Amino acid sequence: MSWKTIIIQTDNASAEALSEALMEQGALSADIHDAAAGTDQEQPLYGEPGLPLGEVWRKAEVSGIFEHDADLDAVMQLITKTLRLSDTPSYRKGIIEEQDWVRLTQSQFNPICISSRLWIVPTWHQPPDPSAINLILDPGLAFGTGSHPTTQLCLAWLDQNLQRGETLLDYGCGSGILAIAALKLGAVHVTGIDIDPHAVKASYANALLNACESSRCSFASHYPILTADTDAVEQVDVVVANILSNPLILLAPILTRAVRAGGRIALSGILASQADEVLSLYRPWFDMHIHAGQEDWVLLTGTKTTDV
To answer: I need a labelling partner for 111 at 20 to 30 A (CA). Which of 117, 133, 287, 300 fits?
Structure first.
């Protein structure tokens, strides 16, 4: 079985309307992407939870996938008429052949070497170094394959800094990769928190894959510090939060309280241009600094100097 695809060249003013028009004309799916993706003119866009994305790419492409018997030229004529366009937008057509999509997706994720002793190994691969600390991972529907720079920055920091016997909170745990890494690196107990139920499910499944003792880990969609009885919360030695700068700013009082006096915090998901704002919010309680960077992302870390 195969499908037909149509790719329309447009701009940020018309992209959304064309995407909706494709769906109205029977597209199975529609997508807006950067026309310059993969070139020197590629334009990265970043969004924060709760904030509008703003404009799309200045030069965009809108693509739609249709059944194999669709008349794409007729579709474009109808879209031109429906949107009252003076001319039919420039477009090209293609064929998408049926593939083993599971294998194709898996082929994009190979084992990742974080350090000489720490590897991320997808479940469909054999560990390249059986003697290393291998994080066996199936992300499922959760964030955290280990391929993103923000995750790798956190893993490298844990590998270098986590002490055996420490407790850890992974706020925004996703696939559970950081919490599980902490257990394998010697943490005595970890707690993973994520508002996405798929993430909680994936974290438990990955903990099982990695033979983590259930008594040493817990994953949930809420944290007791959010309740009125905050004095009952047992603080941890280390907090890691690989999310984005906006929630890290909003969560500063919660994450700060979760760290014991003298404990440490590691914040990731932060663009270099956003670092100063995040640092300024945490510095009243932590000796904060930029620990490392990768591509456009930075990892901020600090030791708690003032208890709250």
So the answer is: 300
Residue with tokens 């798929």: 198
The two beta strands, 112-113 and 118-122, are: antiparallel
Annotated binding site for S-adenosyl-L-methionine: 151, 172, 194, 242
CATH class of 111-304: alpha beta
Q: Which CATH architecture has domain 2-98?
A: 2-Layer Sandwich (3.30)
pLDDT score recorded for residue 142: 63
**3 state DSSP class of 287:** strand
Cα atoms in the Cβ-side hemisphere of radius 13 Å centred on 283: 9
Extended strands (E) in the chain: 2-11, 29-34, 59-66, 91-97, 112-113, 118-122, 133-137, 167-171, 189-193, 217-220, 236-242, 259-271, 286-294, 297-304
223 three-class SS:
coil
pTM of the model: 0.70
Backbone angles phi, psi at 122, to 5 degrees: -60, 150
Q: Where in the chain are all domains bearing CATH 3.30.70.120? A: 2-98
Residues 6+ apart with CB under 8 A from 137: 120, 121, 122, 123, 144, 145, 146, 175, 177, 206, 209
Cα–Cα distance, 219 to 204 (Å, whole number) = 7
Q: Return the amino acid letter for 164.
A: R
The segment(s) of the chain belonging to CATH 3.40.50.150 are 111-304
Q: Tell me the pLDDT tens digit for each residue of 254-304.
A: 999 999 999 999 999 999 999 999 999 999 999 999 999 999 999 999 999
Mark the binding-site residues, compressed into ranges: 151, 172, 194, 242
